[in-house]
């Protein structure tokens, strides 16, 4: 059996596409069931990369297990006392930006801004 070239294996209607006005066919990806082909995410390398990202780690300070690498940084703030997020109105500090934002909306109402919008001057 003689291997076919790509042009022989994939019949293309020359009327569908041309290059620079010439009649040479252009091969384009065809969606299967309406979905364009994507890079292989189920390849062994891609699967192991995802597993590394999802790997559980443990806290070196207290030994708590089951933490993702991204949540370990947040968890370590409980040991260090680091509170990097500050309310601009009352100067309370928080370990997480989402809790600061939640607080800020309520603090704004208490300070006379019923919409909870920022009191910071706009440039």
UniProtKB/TrEMBL annotation:
InterPro entries: VerF-like, Znf_C2H2_sf, Znf_C2H2_type
Domain of life: Eukaryota
PROSITE patterns named in the record: ZINC_FINGER_C2H2_2
Name of the molecule in the record: C2H2-type domain-containing protein
Signal peptide positions (record): none
Domain spans labelled C2H2-type: 57-84
Alphabetical UniProt keywords: Metal-binding, Nucleus, Repeat, Zinc, Zinc-finger
Presence of the UniProt keyword Transcription in the record: no
Subcellular location, principal: nucleus
Gene Ontology molecular function, alphabetical: DNA-binding transcription factor activity, RNA polymerase II-specific; RNA polymerase II cis-regulatory region sequence-specific DNA binding; zinc ion binding
Location(s) in or outside the cell: Nucleus
Pfam (any one): zf-C2H2
SMART domains noted in UniProt: ZnF_C2H2
SUPFAM superfamilies (alphabetical): beta-beta-alpha zinc fingers
Gene Ontology CC entries for this record: chromatin; nucleus
